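Researcher: Let's do a round of design. I'm pasting the structure tokens now; please hold your answer until I've finished.
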């Protein structure tokens, strides 16, 4: 894997200022949550840093890159174009940033829609993406407070927040998000 300074410089150039600040916020938040809940801090750092590495490209460019990599997207992802950057980002992290750890790649892949069987690292990255310091939406402070108490509840509430947003905006719901919700609610 490339060293963190090289990755940071490349992301600074490719993401734009606002998205770069967000990525650094996710990285810092993920490390904090990993430390708090006993996950691997280095993996949290890497996944947090690279989670949006494909987000600097417009959707048509993301689709071109997917085709270049031979990355097939399911019909649900195609109905939710803003989430394409997650599976593409995992592939870019592997091919362009030298990440070989499947747990890190899965956390990047799952940070937008989740899925069944979310690991601790998956939940940390998903939640960190929702609550990092530059996020500003109704309910974010409550999510931040919950994240300090219980990562499973914070993840569940983050998934709920995502569902409510997509429903309110009349956007399609990816089935993996529903799987995350249904799995999380069944253990509540």
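Researcher: That's everything. Go ahead.
Model: Designed sequence:
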């Amino acid at each position: 894997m490339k060293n963190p300074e090289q990755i940071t410089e490349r992301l600074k150039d490719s993401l734009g200022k606002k998205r770069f600040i967000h990525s650094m916020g996710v990285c810092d938040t993920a490390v904090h949550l990993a430390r708090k809940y006993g996950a691997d801090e280095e993996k949290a750092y890497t996944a947090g840093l690279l989670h949006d590495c494909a987000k600097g490209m417009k959707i048509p460019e993301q689709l071109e890159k997917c085709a270049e990599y031979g990355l097939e997207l399911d019909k649900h992802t195609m109905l939710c174009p803003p989430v394409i950057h997650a599976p593409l980002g995992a592939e870019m992290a592997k091919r362009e940033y030298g990440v070989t750890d499947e747990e890190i790649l899965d956390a990047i892949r799952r940070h937008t829609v989740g899925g069944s069987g979310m690991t601790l690292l998956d939940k940390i990255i998903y939640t960190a993406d929702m609550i990092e310091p530059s996020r500003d939406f109704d309910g974010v402070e409550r999510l931040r407070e919950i994240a300090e108490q219980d990562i499973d509840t914070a993840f569940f509430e983050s998934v709920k927040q995502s569902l409510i947003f997509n429903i309110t905006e009349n956007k399609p719901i990816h089935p993996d998000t529903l799987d995350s919700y249904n799995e999380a609610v069944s253990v509540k």
